[in-house]
Structures are given as structure tokens and as C-alpha cells.
Amino acid sequence: MRTLGLQVVFTCVLLQVPGCFPSCIIRGSVANCAFRRLVSVPALPPNITHLYLEMNHIREINSTSLSGLEQLQVLDLGGQRSPLVIRGDAFSRQSRLRKLILGMNFGLQLEAQAFVGLSGLQELHLDSCSLEESILKEDFLQPLSSLETLSLFGNRIKRLQPSMFFTNMTNWKNLNLKLNKIDKICESDLVGFQGKHFEVLNLDSVHLEAMSDKNFDWKKCGNPFRGMSFQMLDLSYNGLGMGKLKQFLRAIEGTKISHLKLSGPMGRGFSFNNLPDPDQSTFDGLKNSSVLTLDLSKNMIFALQQGVFSPLKEAVMIDVSQNKVNHIHRNAFKGLQGHLQLLNLSHNLLGEIYSYTFAPLTNLQVLDLSHNHIGALGYDSFSGLPNLRGLFLTGNALRDLGFPAPLPRLDYLLLNDNKLTPSSVNSIIRFASNIRHLGIEDNRLTNLADVYTFLTQLKRLQHLFYRRNTIKWCTLSQQESRIGPNNLTVLDLGSSSLQSVWSQGKCLNLFDNLGHVVSLSLSSNGLQSLPQGIFKGLTSVVEMDLSSNALTHLEPEVLPKTLKTLNLSNNFISSPDVTAFQSLRYLNLKMNRFHCNANLKSFLTWLNKTNVTFLSPVQELRCEFPSDLYKVTLLDYSAQVKQQ
């Protein structure tokens, strides 16, 4: 039967008979045979390198199942709907296979020599296969001499006792044990891993219940990671309380861990007192571990205690985002001066910042305070941060900045989605006089003259995002009646009520001195027309967004000659004048209201001949008027015109 199948394959390949492989979609050397209700590997051409057989009903892979497919590099047998058995020597001729996926095969059965022949395999996925500790303890994986990544996510491993052959797997560096049932890890059990440097060891959601017992013998258990080092170690949701976590970290003291992740229910939470927050002794066991990144995100920490991170003598990044942090004690960051560069406190419950809050962090470069409830910045707040380059305050409740300490080296300031009022403009200039990027969208600024102020006073500003402020007027002072020399390259004035301002004849010189701007957004401004000469100062602009306005036409000379990309989607342009598009390479006209009559003829001719790339399919452009042509595509209408 197999011989007949191979004859069919060779006939199909040589004669290129259409439909010869009805069970699979074949593109070049890739065969997609997923979701085909197959009960065995189908006959396929011998050049296949990538074979996807997931979600079928294959019950067995044996030594003949993959005959003729010796070029395979990737094989996916995941999620079979019937119990799968991998027989001995099933992959004996698959030396080129680099990635094997067997995940989601509940009750997977592996015979002793199942992986013989896979000397070149680099990735093996055995997720959710109901496997027990024998997969690591016995010799199933010994033939995989080139293995780099092993995923055992979601299995039934209760005790981690790897075989000694793992010491010879020199390329192996990634192990995923997330969501297994391992209740303890001790030094004597993990001898087979000694000498390993793991890029990633994932023990997320491995509940170390036995180690939580009050009678657990920590001395006998020893250091489970002795002789190992980690680029990234994930111990999230480990089931250890604060006291037991301290003991665990002391047990692994000296283990080198570049990146340690400890997400979970750590901390007292908001309005609770029954569980402690980390204190200055919690991470004492890490003092000799050379931790560069500590990830405490997605915990329940309410207060950062004095010196809580002081054992971390080399930390460069600390992430405490998505906690319940409401209070930062004085000297909370003691011991981090000189080396901490990034601190993430986003998505917490902070309400105010004081002068002492971040005082010791002299080398901090990025501070993320976005999505808190910060409504006040105390006098001289952010003092002691001479090297801060990025400050993110998006999604807070600031009405004014008050009098924070100046940040002379700040490049990026994000104040989006606050409640900033006009009085905050001068505070920003005092506070961050050298910024290059200012995001101040979604606030309560009312005077378009603020743009003049920012561009005149902030000499290094290159990017200004000002959209969705409640602009009511444009009242210019004598000192700032026009914008002076500047370095602005990106300007976003979307949703800034420009139609109302310009229709009053106000601020028509807004762009007169913006010769460095290359990208301009004026979307959602209710613009009905563009004032003559409004863009004359934009001598370098290449990209412009005029989408979601009420434009009915464009004057031929209104657009800058340097313009290459134009977004005019969702306007009311009925008969475009193609002379306005002469400089363009990219154009978006989606959702305009075209009037299909004789006036559209020149546009239709241009549409069929132009080399301009349309950013939305031309097939979606449709007639809006007259009613008898409503929703007819412009391409169909053009064909009708030609026939007439």
C-alpha cells in the first residue's frame, strides 16, 4: 500500500497533475495538512521541508510513517484528536529535522527509542502531553545532542530529577516547566543540570508546596541551582509566602541570575493588612547573584519599604508595574544609586510625588509613572535625577505640574491623557527645557497659541504630539506672534478644532517657519477647505494626514511640492483635481464621496494610468452620487464610461 502511495507521489511530481494531494495545501516546500481528519501521514512529494499535521486523527508515528520525507526541517503533529503513540525509530531518518511539535497530545505515549535519529533537532515542544517525571529522568531525550529548547509546559511532572546525560547537551539552554506539579526542587535532584547556563528556565506557576511546609529542611535541600547560572529565571506564582521566599532566595545565594521574574500575589494589596510587603531583608539572598533585571510586575505590593532593593548591588532595571503601589517610603531606592537605569512603576495607585521619592537614583535614565492616579507633583519633585532621559506620566490626573525640579537632560516627556490646563504650559517649559519629544495629547489646553510657545521656547523640540485638546481660540502674544527658528520634524495637531480657528482668520501663519517638518497630521479637524498658502512654510514635508475632515476639494497649488504620502480618507471629495497629486507616491482616498459624472473623467483616466500606490484598495472606491450609481465601484463605473 505504501509502494502504491509513493508511485502516486512520483506521478504527481513528474507530471504535475493538479489535485494530486487533496489532503494538503502545498506551497513550494511547505505542506499544510492541518485540520484534515487524517488518520495517517499522507503521501507527499519528497522536497517537503515544513509539514504541518496538527489537529488530525493520527494515532501512530512509526518507522515508515515519514518514509520519503527525509528533507523535513519542521514537523508539527500537535493536537491530534486521537491518542498518539510515537514508536521506536519513528524519526530514525530525520537527521535534518530542526523543530518538532508534539504539544497538546493528551496522553502521549513515547516508546523508549522514540527520538532516535533526531541528532539535529534544536526545538522540541511537548506541551500538555500528560508526561510525568520519566521524560527527564529516563533516556527518552538522550539522542537529542543538538537540542537547544525544550518545552514541557503543562505536564504532570511532580519531581524534577534530570538524567545525567543532560550534562553532555552543550547547546541546550531553554527549558519551560510552567504549570507542572513539582512541589520542591533540591540540590541532590538537579545534579544533572549542574554546569548549565540557561538562557531561560521557566518555573512559572510551579507551586513549591512542600517547600512551604513549616518543617521543610532547607539545610538538607541545599541550593537547587548550585553550579547553574541564568540569563532569565522565572519563579512567578511559586506558592511561597514572603517568609519562605526569603528562605528560598537565601538557599540559592550566589547563583548568577541576570533577569529574575517574581510575579504573583506578593504584597499586602490595597486595604489589606494580613500579608506583608517586601522589606529590606526580602531580597537579601540575591546580594551576590549579580541581578541586572528584577521583574516584580503583576504582584500586590502596596508600599515600597525603606531599602527594599538595597541588596541588588548591580541592578540596571526594576519593574514594579501592575501592582497596588500607593506609597513609596523615604529611601526606598537606597543602594541603587549609580547603577539603576530604568524604573517601571506604571499601572499602580500612586497619587503624588515628593522631592525625596527618587532622590538617590543619580544614574536613572527612564522613569515610567504612567497610568497611576498622580494628581500632584510636590515642590522640587524629581530632584536627584540629573541623568533622566525619559519621563512617562501618561494616564494620570495632573492639572498642573507645579514646581518640580528641572530635568536638564530630559529628552522624552509624555503627559498624554491627563487634565492639564493652560497654566501648565509655562511649567513644562521650566521643568523640561531641553526635551526633544513632547506628548501632550488628550488634555485640557484651550489656546492653539501654546504650539507657538512650545516651538519658540523649547529649542531642541523635534516631535510635538498635541492632538485631542479642547482648543477654543488662538490668541497670540506680541512676543510670540510667529514661530521662531526651531528643529521640529513631526507635528500632530489632530482633533484640534483648526476649522474653527482658521475660519476666524486666526493663526494662519502656524506653519510659516516649520521648514524642517517632514510629517504633519491634521486629521479630524472638521476642515472644509484649506486656506490659500497655509502650507507655504512646509518646505520639507513628505507625509501629511488630512483624514476624517470635511474637505470637498483641493486647490491645485495648496499642497507642498515635497509631499510624497497623503492620507485623504473619510472626506467629501467628489471630483478630485489630479494636478494636486503630482508629487505623490502614496495616496489614501478611502471613504470619500465620489460624484460619478462627466467631471470625474480626468480622475478616472489618471486612476487607470498613475504609478501612485494607493494605501487602500482601489476596488473599494465607490460612487456616492447620483443615486442610481450609489455604491458602484469607480472601476466598474470607469468601464461603463469606456463602453459608452
UniProtKB/TrEMBL annotation:
InterPro entries: Leu-rich_rpt, Leu-rich_rpt_typical-subtyp, LRR_dom_sf, LRR_TM_domain-containing. Residues 1-22 form the signal peptide. The keyword Transport does not apply. SMART domains: LRR_SD22, LRR_TYP. Pfam families: LRR_1, LRR_8. Coiled coil: none annotated. It comes from the Eukaryota. The keyword Repeat applies. One of its GO terms (cellular component) is plasma membrane. Keywords: Leucine-rich repeat, Repeat, Signal. This is LOW QUALITY PROTEIN: toll-like receptor 5. The gene is LOC108888912.
